[in-house]
Amino acid sequence: MNTFTYSYPVKVYFGEKAAANNLSAELAKVGSNVLLAYGGGSIKKNGVYEELTGILKEAGKTVTEFTGIMSNPTYKKVQEGAKLARENHIDFILAVGGGSVIDCCKIVSAQAKLAEDIWELEYGKGGRPSEFIPMGAVVTAFGTGAEMNNGAVITNEEKMLKSALWGAFYDFAILDPAYTMTMPLKQVISGAFDSLSHSMETYMGSPREVNLSDEINEATQRNIIRNIRATLKDPQDIQVRSELIWAAAMAENGILKIGKVTDFQCHMLEHQLGAYTDCNHGQGLAVLHPVLYRHMMPEASRQFARLAVEVWGIDPVGKSEEDLAGAFVDALAAFIKEIGLPTTFAEMGIGEDTDFQAIADSTTLTGGCAKKFTSKELLEVLTECR
Ligand code: NZQ
Ligand code: ZN
Beta 135-139 vs 92-97: how paired, if at all? Predict the structure, then answer.
């Protein structure tokens, strides 16, 4: 175990009617000017908008809407939200959506209180914002676990970077499985795969000896795999959906990371792929993971071998560590195919004309990865994914 301090600032209201039962009490604690933030309008089709605006109205709030937050939110969109928040003297942000809306608002909440440009503050000066507009999240698309942390993945189109900015933690998060039942099945699967990826990226970090966090992590991975299969059988099973939503939160609420340095090399590469192609995050991870892991095989064979047995149920009898490590990557690749995720960039519509060299060169090399990748080897990975 590495040394750690653990406390968690996000209060979670989980379950059906979580908004109806808890949002009024939370709104009573905040000022009257509320920024209601959402994406492209799915909440207007499934009744979530109507329910939430009803609660806001009953609470006597003055609502300003911040709409059209796109998947892979841009820095420009963050600045638009911050301007809106300043001009309307916003006291509280209610972010309603998936990882994109939830991330965008974390940075809006910080930028609205800052005189200087937050990208320059964080990347130019190595600083962090210290003042924030309070916020609540209502999750309508699960998978990223973005509601549980203060990192936001923002695409800076001018700089061609999709990078983490650090903003505020949400004061509370509402996770009502019923709100997610209208998600397209494709997004359910790519979101759930993202949760599996977060668990694996956390597991693969150091130290290499298995600790309690890793054993909880193994259970989380087994749960996600089982429930992805179950949701494909019956996409409307709300119990299955509940499991997946909580597993997504578990992967990002800090518990699996206790005492560990995480890996997240695959995520860094996928984020830059996203900066250049605007691709779906979970799908990008699905293509990259098996290929990247084959490159990591010698260095990560101990963890891979353990996952083969503990998560994928592979019989270890008569198999060497190398055999088991290979069997793990094979099982992961077969699972990705089984659940209908893409296995090549071509399937994702990412063409040969993509600047893979620039993607590899601009990808952060992570310290926690078992293998110390070079940009050159990341380019090989990208090339093999085509
Ligand atoms: O915009 P609307 O119309 O709402 O449609 C959205 C969007 O098209 C739709 N949707 C959401 N809830 C729905 C629904 N459609 C029907 N019914 C509902 N209930 O789903 C689409 C995708 O939403 P989005 O928020 O983009 O997806 P996701 O949750 O996968 O978030 C992806 C973003 O999160 C970042 C990713 O990089 C990407 O930018 N990540 C954030 C992380 C974090 N902060 O911890 C960690 C992740 O690794 C990830 O990088
Ligand atoms: Zn992710």
Answer: parallel
**First-residue to last-residue Cα distance in the chain:** 39
Structure tokens at 158: 């001018």
- For 180-339, where are the alpha helices, taking DSSP H only? 185-203, 212-233, 238-252, 265-277, 281-310, 321-338
Q: In a mutational test of the pocket of ligand 1, which residue from 42, 102, 195, 270 has the highest number of ligand atoms less than 8 Å from its CB? A: 42
pLDDT in tens, 251-308: 999 999 999 999 999 999 999 999 999 999 999 999 999 999 999 999 999 999 999 9
In 10 A of CB 301, how many CB atoms?
Answer: 19
Q: Is 281 in the pocket of ligand 1 (CB under 6 A)?
A: yes
Kindly report the number of other CB atoms within 10 A of residue 25's CB atom: 11
Domains of the chain plus CATH, in order, are: 11-180 (3.40.50.1970), 186-384 (1.20.1090.10)
* Structure-block tokens of residue 23: 């949002």
The reported pTM is: 0.98
